[in-house]
Amino acid sequence: MRRSLVAALAATALATPLAVVATTGSASAAPVPPRAHVTDFNHDGYADLAISATGSYDGATPGHVSIVYGSASGPDTAHAQTIGRETPGVPGEPERSGRFGQDTAAADLDGDTYTDLVVTGYDGKAVVLWGSAAGLTGEGSSELPVNGARVTAGDFNGDGKRDLVSATYPRSDDPDNNDQGMTVSYGPFTRDGKPARTQAVVTSQTFGPGGFVAGDITGDGADDIVTSHGFEEMAYGSQFWQGGKDGVSTTSQKLAPSLGGAVADVDGDGYGDLVVRDIGGNFEDMQYQKGTILIRYGSASGPSSTRTAKITQDTAGVPGVGEKGDEFGSAISAGDANGDGYADVAVGIPGEDIETVKEAGSTVLLKGSRGGLTGTGAQAFHQSTTGVPGASEGLDEFGSEVLLSDTNKDGKADLTVSAPLEDGTYEDSGAVWHLRGATGGLTVTGIKSFGPKGVGLPAEDAVQFGQPLGR
């Protein structure tokens, strides 16, 4: 089945990985080389995966999140855990159309060295699942004052504590107030879900944030925020909000309309670079676009307006050809896949036709370098690639979600890519593939593929597994 426009927008807006951020330094000093924050729920040094199965659009299933722990051999599916509203200790009740796992944010919120996971849905307030030596469970989980909103993690005041940013909208009991914006909740959080303090930032009088991209673009040690905005078919300019020792600035820098993306140092100069999907001015056209990625290189004053680049499938070195409906850039994630010190960027192309198979989907790895992100040495993978399990089928939309993270702790980021519309036991049950990072880039050697059954998720609850991948 083809995703509806609303679903496509939601899926793309969730592709906002906290890829690489700086930790110290100041705006006047040379930037410190960024470091990646590892999602490690059991603090064993291996990056872990949080894979949502948000349920069917007809609301028959409530949504779940499966936790797959990293190991020396990559994702350890044998010890995976699945958590939903029905899990003991998780507040709330499972609901039809609840879409538990619709959005997730991974961060060590209480400062105990274990990564925690914030999970939102349409079924109530956001839930924090606390990390531990045993990983994630429902026991002791807490609610946050976030209800069905976008949520992203970062360190927005540069104090070394992890924070959250979530979307806020006008209250129904205050019809004269049209302010829309974001709430920044600063860590550390207590175990009952209370932050150290909160900050409300008005981002628009009309159209609130549709998503966040977070990371240190200015090299001052505090993460910055880019918000996307739009309503119905209209896309409005994104906005850059600088973080700092006092928190997030209440004034913004206007940017071109974009959706989703990552902040990562693709040229090794110490500044995080903003890599986003360039969507033009109309949301309605998104699912028909060939697709374009816009790179705005980082600087002490924010995303550069003069040092920019665009990459499409027609860029030299990029495999494939740009075609209407490919949606190149529908999902974006960043990490160093070849271990050369430059961040690489994984790009989802869910609408790509593979030979005569419509919308089978594909993904491309773009490699960073001293000269920045280019098509040189780019790699493409899909289900018809030799060594990749499965077969390209119509409307699978392989590449709907992509995530670069080092699950086997070898210093090279591995790629997790999903096809939430892959047919398994049921239609659109979904599946993910895991490709290892290597000196030459990604490799199919040791590739793993699994669906909901592979992590013990009951078939009747397994709908759109891999939508989204937790960050």
What can you tell me about this protein's structure?
The relative contact order is 0.15. A hairpin with an 8-residue loop joins β20 and β21 (344-349). The chain is built from one helix and 28 strands. The longest helix has 9 residues, at 5-13. With 471 residues, it is mainly β. The protein has one helix at 5-13, and strands at 49-53, 64-69, 76-83, 103-107, 116-120, 125-129, 142-147, 151-154, 163-168, 180-186, 197-204, 209-215, 224-231, 234-241, 253-254, 258-264, 273-278, 293-296, 308-311, 331-335, 344-349, 362-366, 379-381, 401-405, 414-419, 431-438, 441-450, 465-469. The chain has a four-stranded antiparallel β-sheet with strand order 4-5-6-7, with no helix packed on it. It is globular.
Task: Give a concise summary.
The protein has 1 helix and 28 strands.
Question: How do the helices and strands line up, and which of them pair or pack?
Answer:
Blueprint: H1 5-13, E1 49-53, E2 64-69, E3 76-83, E4 103-107, E5 116-120, E6 125-129, E7 142-147, E8 151-154, E9 163-168, E10 180-186, E11 197-204, E12 209-215, E13 224-231, E14 234-241, E15 253-254, E16 258-264, E17 273-278, E18 293-296, E19 308-311, E20 331-335, E21 344-349, E22 362-366, E23 379-381, E24 401-405, E25 414-419, E26 431-438, E27 441-450, E28 465-469
Antiparallel strand pairs: 1-2, 2-3, 4-5, 5-6, 6-7, 8-9, 9-10, 10-11, 12-13, 13-14, 14-15, 16-17, 17-18, 18-19, 20-21, 21-22, 22-23, 24-25, 25-26, 26-27
